[in-house]
C-alpha cells in the first residue's frame, strides 16, 4: 500500500522536536551526574573526615576534663572531700560528645554502603536511557532525514499536477451574465413559437 504523506513540514517539525528532546535529556543527565558525584564525594570523603576530626576533638576534651577532675579531687580547702560538680558535668558532656561523634561515624559508614547499592541500581536504570540517546534517537533521526530526502527527490521528479485550464477564452463576469441571459431568452422564445401538437382524438 503506498504511503500517503500530507505534510513534509510535519515530518521536519517532528525531527526538530526529537533533536531538542535529545539535547534536553543529555543536559539533564550531565547535571544529574554532577550531583551524584558531589554526593558520593560528600559521603565518602567529606563526612568521614569531618566526624573523625570531631571524634578526636571529643577525645581531647575528655582527656582535659579528666585532668581537671583529678586536680579538683586532689585540691582540698577543708578536711571534706570536694564535690567537683562542674568538672564531673564537663566530663560527662565531653563523653556524650564523643559518643555522638562515634554514632555519626557509624551512620556515615552505613550510608556509604547504602549509597553504593543505590548508585549501582541507578546506573543500571539510566543505561537504558543512555542507549536510547546514543543509538535509538540517532537512528530515528537518520531515518527521518532519509525520508525527507526521498520526498524531496520525488517532488522534483513528479511535481504536483497543475489545474486543468480550458482552451476557450474566459469571459469577464459581465460578459458571462449577458451570455447566460441571451441563452435563456432564446430558449424561452423557442418554447413559445412552437405550436402544441394536437391530440389524435378530439372531443
Task: Quote the beta fraction.
Answer: under 5%
Overall body shape: rod-shaped
For the record, give the distance between the C-alpha atoms at the N and C termini, rounded to a whole number.
Answer: 72 Å
Tell how many strands the DSSP assignment holds: 0
Rounded to an integer, what's the Rg over CA atoms? Answer: 48 Å
Class based on secondary structure composition and strand pairing: mainly alpha
Uncertain segments are 162-175, 191-203
Quick one: biggest sheet?
none
Fraction of residues in helix: over 70%
Q: How many discrete domains?
A: 1
Discrete helix count:
3
Write down the overall mean pLDDT: 80
SSE topology string = HHH
Description:
The protein has 203 residues and is an all-alpha fold. The chain has one domain (8-157). 79% of the residues lie in helices and 0% in strands. The protein has helices spanning 8-74, 85-157, 173-193. Helix 1 packs antiparallel against helix 2 (85-157). The longest helix has 73 residues, at 85-157. The chain starts with 7 loop residues before the first helix and ends in a 10-residue tail after the last helix.
What order do the helices and strands come in, and which of them pair?
Elements: H1 8-74, H2 85-157, H3 173-193
Provide tags for this entry.
203 residues, mainly alpha, 3 helices
Describe this structure in a few short sentences.
By secondary structure, this protein is an all-alpha fold. Helices cover 79% and strands 0% of the residues.
Amino acid at each position: 500500500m503506498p504511503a500517503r504523506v500530507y505534510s513534509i513540514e510535519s515530518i521536519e517539525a517532528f525531527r526538530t522536536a526529537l533533536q531538542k528532546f535529545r539535547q534536553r535529556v543529555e543536559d539533564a543527565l550531565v547535571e544529574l551526574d554532577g550531583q551524584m558525584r558531589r554526593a558520593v564525594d560528600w559521603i565518602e570523603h567529606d563526612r568521614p573526615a569531618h566526624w573523625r576530626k570531631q571524634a578526636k576533638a571529643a577525645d581531647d576534651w575528655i582527656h582535659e576534663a579528666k585532668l581537671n577532675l583529678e586536680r579538683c579531687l586532689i585540691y582540698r580547702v577543708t578536711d571534706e572531700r570536694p564535690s567537683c560538680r562542674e568538672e564531673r558535668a564537663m566530663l560527662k558532656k565531653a563523653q556524650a560528645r564523643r559518643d555522638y561523634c562515634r554514632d555519626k561515624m557509624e551512620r556515615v559508614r552505613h550510608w556509604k554502603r547504602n549509597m553504593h547499592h543505590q548508585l549501582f541500581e541507578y546506573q543500571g536504570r539510566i543505561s537504558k536511557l543512555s542507549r536510547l540517546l546514543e543509538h535509538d534517537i540517532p537512528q530515528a533521526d537518520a531515518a527521518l532525514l532519509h525520508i525527507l530526502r526521498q520526498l524531496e527527490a520525488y517532488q522534483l521528479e513528479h511535481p504536483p499536477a497543475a489545474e486543468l485550464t480550458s482552451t476557450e477564452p474566459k469571459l469577464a463576469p459581465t460578459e458571462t451574465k449577458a451570455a447566460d441571459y441571451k441563452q435563456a431568452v432564446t430558449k424561452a422564445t423557442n418554447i413559445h413559437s412552437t405550436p402544441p401538437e394536437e391530440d389524435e382524438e378530439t372531443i
